[in-house]
Amino acid sequence: MVLTIRNERGEEIARKLVGVGAMQPGEQRTFTLSVEMNPSSAGSKRTRH
Length: 49
Prior knowledge:
The protein is mainly β. The chain is 0% helix and 22% strand.
């Protein structure tokens, strides 16, 4: 699976390959995505990690 992360302008900022294992015909996989965010401090500069 390829995970692509884009910023508010639609520009790609990261792309990650995530292995899901070998699949046989008739098998299924389930994916869960969660996003954790922390509020920024007032007056702090934006940083990119």
